[in-house]
Amino acid sequence: MTEHTSQTDSTGAIPEQAAGGILHIDLDALAANWRTLRDHAGGAETAAVVKADAYGLGIEKAVPALARVGCRTFFVAHLSEAIRARAVAPEATIYVLNGLFSGTCTTYAEHDLRPVLGSFEEIEEWAGFCRVQSQKLKAAIHVDTGMNRLGLPVPQGLTLKDRGELEDFEIALLMSHFVSAEESDNPLNAQQIEAFEAIRSSLPHIPASLPNSSGIFLRDKPGYDLVRPGYALYGGNPTPSRDNPMRPVVGLEGRIVQLRWVEAEHTVGYNGRWLALDRRRIATISVGYADGFPRSASARGKSGEEFLAGTALVAGQACPFAGNVSMDLITVDVTDVPEAQVQRGDTVTLIGGELTIDEVGRRAGTIGYEILTNLGARYARAYRGGEG
Ligand SMILES: *Cc1c(COP(=O)(O)O)cnc(C)c1O
Predict the structure, then answer these.
(1) Each residue of 127-147: pLDDT tens digit?
(2) Which listed residue, 97, 112, 283, 284, has the most CB atoms within 10 A of its CB?
(3) Nearest alpha carbon, ligand 1 atom 12
(4) How many CA atoms lie less than 13 Å away from 159 in the CB half-sphere?
């Protein structure tokens, strides 16, 4: 992947030779994924969820790349993220999912941001602010159709139409969020659609939004007026029971700092949790849990045994982790790769090829979302494309 190096953005970046890991981020693939989702959205506007630093990719890179291909609406979780998004997308519509924190209305107005209001208290505060400003500012309203986390419970949502505050501001979007849209047969999907439908029909003419990435691929296509994909934009599989329709966006390479032979009956790593049954060749990679690579990908057992743990692609061959993932290092059993093909200084693939973000997540007992959003700050970041 060295051909990307010349296209690397160099502003304030960690140079590749000085980094333990090299993170490749393909902004053209991100843009292509947005287009694929738009083509599946059944005519609904396709927004982009860029919370958590655009799922770890970098909000300042991802937002302009998406805006260039036509994305006009962005969702973040925090007000601080919205301010960062605004700085690179002066024309965009930006919503803050985590609700209106008391006393922050002025900051919203100052940066032309829209809160996603999820309780009557938040609605009252926003309406009160708008009255004082004599301005009908825009906001979204979130109704909770099953997550029991954020938003107005359904019975409250059904009374929205009678609330006086709706005179004071503009509801630009009525939204809810799926609990398990990635399970296409889960009966909860239809129940949520039905509950959302009831509230929506009580508030006619207000644009509505329900699907996340996986919701876009449900048979019922509950696209409404706007869809809110996040994970699929970044290459995650929105249809886990089927092939991934998205392009990979993120690749991670780690550098081999040392190679050694470990004799039979010796262990590798902290607490001696991995035992060599015969003489094994171990490569030590300069990436660890301090880089956000999960410690739960640790390989605890014996050499040659089959168990779920991390894997690296070494000279194109899948090699199992050996022992605990430590803060700055991962040890990999490379015995099965011809000795001449694995040298000090070589890079190995930790994310890429068959090691998709979904697969890396599975091997660590977590989900690809967590792999992405933990991508560390010590990597050299090689961005590619994004020029539209
Ligand atoms: C995170 C989030 C999304 C995006 O979900 P993905 O599964 O990443 O597509 C959409 N809507 C809300 C309310 C969210 O919190």
Answers:
(1) 999 999 999 999 999 999 999
(2) 283
(3) 177
(4) 8
